[in-house]
Design a protein that fits this description.
The chain has about 425 residues and is of the alpha/beta class. It has 15 helices and 17 strands. It has two domains: about 140 residues, Aspartate Aminotransferase, domain 1 (Alpha-Beta Complex), CATH 3.90.1150.10; about 260 residues, Aspartate Aminotransferase, domain 2 (3-Layer(aba) Sandwich). The longest helix is centred in the N-terminal third of the chain and has 20 residues. The structure holds 4'-deoxy-4'-aminopyridoxal-5'-phosphate. 4'-deoxy-4'-aminopyridoxal-5'-phosphate binds next to helix 5.
């Protein structure tokens, strides 16, 4: 199917019918939900899947020999397979279910990091990282004596690639960078970064919390080593996330958490550990949530990630045009849609970002204000906070008009 043909099939109004939460009024106005970068809404298919699990086959996995447990185990493992195919993993064994992207990154920092890093080693990050892809490395650096280096961003919110050349050395053991910034919307050249990291013998970890929900992501094409993302930003429930890792690396890594389900044999003083992925899934996992993540993957794949990306691309282009025309409004991040996703952070002269969000809320428009868990980036941008509008498959041009009209009104009010 050509992109054009696919586009004509992208019927946003019928997609919206799948999302019950969108059909309500907030402060007497129809809800315009423009905060999907924080967490997406869920289609009825995913909500029904959760309910179906609890109504028909709720039981613990990998243990029982009875029918319900077998059904739950089958569905849980089938979801792992769906996620593996979704990111083009070589095997479902490379997919570890975690609570969220944050836990996935912490898993790598604790397990791979503690086992492999020494004083003097270096980790290359960027200044646009979410705290989830910063604090675990700060903590690892404190434990091991490793040091952190940071790639800067330019005036357009793009990575300064000369910094990568300058900072990557034989001492660099890991490059950990976000695929798409949750503040700037910048999409980073991950394939290129992985190539450069590998040429110095470093591993490449990608924080894909903002990319996997919005665009086709293929771990083999990107040729990365670890990829972390969260279910709740991609139409799935909260409480389920994914760490994809190259199998040879995962197999060599020690456990992160200890307990039931992650062992082969146990005596009072020692234990042997299960193979991956079980080694990294101690305790009862988020069974219903994992199965519902599989349903969310099906939902997104039915629409097609390239088509979803194209829809958001068009919304972003329109929003950039509308917002740029507002007097006193500054957009942080790329002003064009090239290598840019649908998160737009901005400030409005003389108006506090939280006041903007509160005024928009009175019009039923939900946006987020704050540092969006990227405090160092905001310090560099020299603003304590920004307001952020972010788009997903169910958003419309009309909602962006409402955002722009609300901002114009706010600007006049404070002028
Ligand atoms: N990385 C990025 C780029 C994010 O936007 C987020 C969520 N705001 C995270 C990591 C962390 O996701 P979670 O809170 O689901 O672990």
């Amino acid at each position: 199917m050509t992109t054009q043909a696919a586009l004509s099939l992208f019927d946003v109004l019928s997609i919206r019918r799948d999302f019950p939460i969108l059909h309500q009024e907030i402060n007497g106005k129809p809800l315009a939900f423009l905060d999907s970068a924080a967490s997406s809404q869920k289609p009825r298919q995913v909500i029904d899947c959760l309910e179906d699990y609890y109504r028909r086959y709720n039981a613990n996995v990998h243990r029982g020999v009875y029918k319900l447990s077998e059904q739950a185990t089958f569905a849980y493992e089938r979801a792992r397979g769906k996620v593996a195919r979704f990111v083009n993993a070589r095997s479902p064994k490379e997919v570890i279910f975690t609570r969220n992207a944050t836990e996935s990154i912490n898993l790598v920092a604790r397990s791979w990091g503690d086992a492999n890093l020494r004083e003097g080693d270096r980790i290359l990050l960027s200044v646009m990282e979410h705290h989830a892809n910063l604090i675990p490395w700060q903590m690892l650096a404190q434990r091991t004596g490793a040091q952190l280096d940071f790639v800067r961003v330019d005036g357009e919110g793009r990575l300064v690639m000369e910094d990568v050349d300058r900072l990557l050395t034989e001492k660099t053991r890991l490059v950990a960078i976000t695929h798409q910034s949750n503040v700037l919307g910048t999409i980073n050249p991950i394939q290129e970064l992985a190539l450069r990291a590998h040429s110095f013998g470093a591993l490449m970890l990608v924080d894909a919390a903002q990319s996997v929900p919005h665009m086709p992501v293929d771990v083999q094409t990107l040729d990365v080593d670890f990829l972390a993302f969260s279910g709740h930003k991609m139409c799935a429930p909260t409480g389920i996330g994914v760490l994809w890792g190259r199998r040879s690396l995962l197999e060599a890594m020690p456990p992160f958490l200890g307990g039931g389900s992650m062992i082969k044999t146990v005596d009072l003083h020692t234990a042997t550990y299960a193979d991956v992925p079980a080694r990294f899934e101690a305790g009862t996992p988020a069974i219903a949530e994992a199965i519902a993540l599989g349903e969310a993957v099906d939902y997104l794949q039915r629409l097609g990630l390239a088509t979803i990306y194209q829809h958001e691309h068009e919304l972003t282009a329109y929003a950039l045009e509308r917002l740029s025309a507002i007097e006193g409004l500054t957009i942080y991040g790329p002003k064009t849609t090239e290598m840019r996703g649908g998160s737009i952070s901005f400030t409005l002269d003389m108006v506090h970002p939280h006041d903007i969000a509160a005024l928009l809320d009175s019009d039923g428009v939900a946006v987020r204000a704050g540092h969006h868990c990227c405090q160092p980036l905001h310090t560099l941008l020299d603003v304590p906070a920004t307001t952020r509008a972010s788009f997903y498959l169910y958003n419309t041009q009309e909602e962006i008009d409402r955002l722009a009209i609300g901002l114009e009104r706010t600007q006049k009010l404070f002028a």
